[in-house]
Write a structure and sequence with these properties.
The complex is a heterodimer of chains A (311) and B (297).
Chain A (H helix, E strand, L loop, with lengths): L1 H4 L22 H27 L2 E3 L6 E3 L3 H7 L2 H32 L6 H9 L6 H11 L6 H8 L11 H28 L4 H9 L4 H12 L1 H17 L2 H6 L11 H10 L5 H32 L1
Antiparallel strand pairs in A: 1-2
Chain B lengths: L25 H33 L20 H9 L2 H32 L5 H11 L4 H14 L7 H7 L4 H11 L3 H9 L4 H9 L4 H17 L2 H6 L8 H12 L3 H21 L1 H11 L3
Classes of the chains: A mainly alpha (311), B mainly alpha (297).
């Protein structure tokens, strides 16, 4: 609008024919938006609504015949020990991997933001696991953590250290998941923190140095507070990731031994598409994952909006 | 795919090499440098270790393994590769991955820039509501919609074809936000001038907006390539015929076939990750910018 008013030819003639310019809308917008709208309605919105509907049904494995159950699937959930275990494991996975990957990622970002020969190479090495598929990561993990012929136990033996039962007991198996997750997630954390660090004005550090602040004080009172938005963004993204984790768990431990590392993502898949093929119950577990994600997305949106308003 | 409200595209030049380190006191900074170098080397060794093991095992020619692990390669052999390639249609799977990834990426990029342009530059009713709806679809977890998605795709008769993966894959909405963010920064004056010359929306989009969007197209293309090449959960359900497998599905299938023959498995893993690693090394700047902006991984 501002551009138009600069041109004398389009200025409304003084006095006569004062046609009020209502913002006319571009009909071509329909064509520009149609592909995106059709795809997201057909393959995201309708399926999400349908997921709620199917979660109240029993879907016969072969015929696909639907029997309506009301909330019976959700009642089953409340008395299903494997569901509770998956929920607990998902929560534990979140509580362990999110703070760890953020702390390590922040430390690496600070390190990579300092004067350092060859830091480009190191940075690239830290990013690399990010572009590798979860299946490949999981498969490499099975070799590293194999109990009898694996790399880590082999190294432990040659160093005279005891071997860990990475596959046959629950806690080491869970630890193997945490370690492999850190391997692929710290790069992401570091990317976001590096972007945040480079936006910190240098003058602040110079002023602090003049005042005699130590390195730790500079980090504690300048760097860390100014990284607040990055920290919050990462917190939410990492929490959502941990609710939805699937590929690496499926390939590395497949939820085992027993159900020691079963998470909501793998349990939903196995229920709906495993031997049981209980798609109604599987959809109900999917709905739980949806709500967990929803809560944290809303928190992020609200905070984002508040920040925009105050800014 | 987990996405939340996108961040601004502009201030994320993570790779821009500045020399920011604040000058410490002279005497300590030398010790500090040594400490930092030691830490950096240790980090690099730990982070590279799993990939190093994959690489050396793949080229070791070894089939059976015992507890004796050699971190330093003992020999160079292609035997593991020929063994896998002779026994399984890895070439077909590779081709399937290439075809599915390229078509899905082309569709995703096209759909994203078209919708992004409308949201950034066109006037139409219910714009904000529609934008919010699109934003909301980004947080729908794949696991939550598996069952209905399967029934819809099955109902369309797509199961048993590549389209079962390609069409839902093109519904990835993260690109729309990236495109909108980028196009908002294009000055309206350029478009107004063209409009006065009688150009329609499509013409303006094609000859004025799109040529300015090369960095956006690069970021979008690379993110879509990465996402689709690595996608696992949905193809696992949609591609039941081994002749249609993509590399991640083939990889997971071979895990069951080879059990502890890690020579064969690591060779196959290397084949599946190599194209993306090469792309990443060539275009790291765009990858990093895209990841920092959308937060998808």
């Amino acid at each position: 609008m501002t551009a138009v008013s600069a041109l004398p030819t389009t200025a409304p003639p003084v006095g006569g024919g004062n046609r009020r310019r209502r913002p006319r809308w571009d009909r071509s917008a329909i064509a520009f938006l149609a592909p995106a709208l059709l795809l997201s309605i057909g393959f995201l919105i309708v399926p999400m609504v349908a997921a709620f509907v199917y979660s109240t049904a029993r879907i016969a494995p072969l015929s696909g015949k639907i029997t309506w159950l009301g909330l019976e699937n959700y009642a089953t959930m409340l008395s299903d020990p494997v569901f509770y275990r998956s929920l607990l494991n998902t929560a534990l996975f979140m509580l362990i991997t999110v703070p760890l990957s953020m702390a390590v990622g922040l430390a690496l970002a600070v390190l990579m933001n300092s004067v350092l020969p060859g830091r480009k190479v190191v940075r690239t090495i830290i990013y690399l696991p990010l572009v590798i598929s979860g299946v490949a990561v999981g498969l490499i993990g099975t070799f590293l953590f194999n109990e009898t012929i694996g790399v880590f136990n082999g190294l432990a033996t040659s160093l005279g250290l005891p071997n860990a039962s990475w596959q046959s007991s629950g806690i080491p198996a869970f630890a193997s998941l945490v370690l492999i997750t850190l391997w692929i997630r710290v790069g992401f954390t570091m990317i976001i923190y590096l972007a945040g660090l480079q936006a910190v004005p240098q003058e602040l550090y110079e002023a602090a140095s003049v005042e005699g602040a130590t390195t730790w004080q500079r980090f504690r009172f300048i760097t860390f507070p100014l990284l607040g938005p990055s920290t919050f963004f990462l917190l939410i993204m990492n929490v959502i990731y941990s609710f939805q984790v699937f590929d690496t768990v499926f390939v590395l431990t497949n939820g085992g031994p027993g159900v020691a590392t079963e998470v909501l993502g793998t349990y939903a898949y196995k229920t709906a598409f495993g031997p049981a093929r209980d798609q109604g119950y599987g959809a109900a577990i999917g709905v739980v994952i949806f709500f967990l994600t929803l809560i944290f997305t809303i928190v992020q949106w609200r905070t984002n909006r508040n920040r925009d308003e105050t800014a | 795919m987990a996405i939340t409200a996108p961040r601004a595209l502009a201030p994320t030049r993570v790779d821009a090499d500045r020399r920011p380190a604040p000058p410490g006191r002279r005497g300590r900074s030398k010790v500090g440098l040594v400490v930092r170098i030691v830490l950096a080397v240790a980090t690099a060794v730990v982070m590279a270790f799993p990939l190093w093991i994959m690489l050396t095992t793949a080229f070791s020619g070894q089939q059976t393994f015992d507890a004796e692990v050699s971190v330093i390669p003992q020999q160079f052999s292609l035997a593991n590769f020929t063994r896998v390639l002779d026994a399984w249609p890895v070439g077909v799977w590779f081709g399937n991955s290439v075809v599915i990834t390229l078509i899905t990426t082309a569709l995703t990029v096209a759909v994203s820039v078209l919708a992004g342009y409308a949201f950034a530059k066109l006037v139409f009713p219910a714009k904000n509501v529609l934008f919010l709806v699109m934003l909301a679809t980004m947080m729908i977890p794949t696991q939550a919609i598996l069952v209905p998605q399967f029934r819809i795709v099955n109902g369309l008769g797509l199961i048993g074809t590549f389209w079962a993966v390609i069409v839902p894959g093109a519904a990835a909405t993260f690109g729309i936000f990236l495109a909108r963010q980028f196009m908002l920064a294009i000055p309206n004056e350029l478009m107004e001038a063209a409009k006065l010359d009688g150009a329609g929306s499509l013409r303006i989009f094609w000859s004025i907006v799109l040529p300015l969007c090369k960095p956006l197209l690069a970021v979008l293309t690379l993110l879509a390539l990465m996402y689709q090449w690595n996608d696992f959960l949905w193809p696992l359900i949609a591609l039941k015929d081994p002749a249609l497998y993509t590399l991640p599905i083939g990889l997971q299938f071979l895990q069951g076939q080879y059990q502890t023959d890690y020579g064969a498995l690591m060779a196959m893993t290397l084949i599946s990750v190599a194209p993306l690693v090469v792309l990443f090394l060539a275009f790291q700047r765009f990858f990093v910018q895209g990841l920092a902006t959308t937060g998808i991984r």
